[in-house]
Amino acid sequence: MSISKDLAIVSSLKFFNLIWDRRKLISFISVMALLGVITSLSGCTQTGKAEKTEKLEKSEKTEKAEKDVSEATNTWLNTVTSGSEGVVDEVVALYAEDGVLWGTVSEQVRDTPAEIRDYFEYFAELPELSVSSYKGCVRMYDENLAINSGYYTFTYSKDGKTEEVPARYSFTYHKNDSNQWEIIEHHSSALPEAPGALKTVNAEQDTCENGLLVER
Predict the structure, then answer these.
(1) How many DSSP H helices and E strands does the chain contain?
(2) How far apart are CA 181 and CA 183, in angstroms?
(3) Does domain 63-195+209-215 have CATH number 3.10.450.50?
(4) Is-contact 66 95, C-beta < 8 A?
(5) Domain locations along the chain
(6) Contact between residue 181 and residue 72 where contact means Cβ atoms under 8 Å apart
(7) pLDDT digit string, tens, across residues 118-145
(8) CA 171 to CA 69: how far, in whole Å?
(9) Of 149, 150, 155, 195, which has the highest C-beta tally within 10 A?
(10) Is the model's pTM score more than 0.70?
(11) The pLDDT of residue 10
(12) Are strands 109-110 and 95-102 parallel, antiparallel or unpaired?
């Protein structure tokens, strides 16, 4: 075999080795790129799962808090109409020390425990006091603050007849250091008679889309 033929063979081998090395390099790059995509997708999946879990946990916490606030309002309704000997003390205990009350039949705001007590010494001791209807919406504003607003109707006995007081209300609740929902502000007022020129809004607006609908 001549020297020129040997050189040609060597050159050909080098050429094919170069091509093979490039193919291996391309394959390596392709594999690494694929691994990068898979890793990225896996990371997105894990992030998505974490976000869904966090939203689910938050939703569950919100739902529990809404139910707890609803139960706190039920406690108030049941207590104020209980007619028990200690009804005044029991109702006042549901308000924060710095709680504020705009009572249904009071012309004045009451912002001390003594003033709130004075109100319920009258209201909670009305003969045969009861709640004939109640509908409201509980909304959470953070994990420690909530508002329940809506309508309730009180009835009581006067001169042998049943008197009815339809009213609107809003309870503002705060969770205290004992993990209990207490009333920090309570507004309640008798429903006024609307003027004839004022249009009635659609009743479907009372569906409480962004909170928990409560009624009985």
Answers:
(1) 3, 7
(2) 7
(3) yes
(4) no
(5) 63-195+209-215
(6) yes
(7) 999 999 999 999 999 999 999 999 999 9
(8) 10
(9) 150
(10) yes
(11) 46
(12) antiparallel
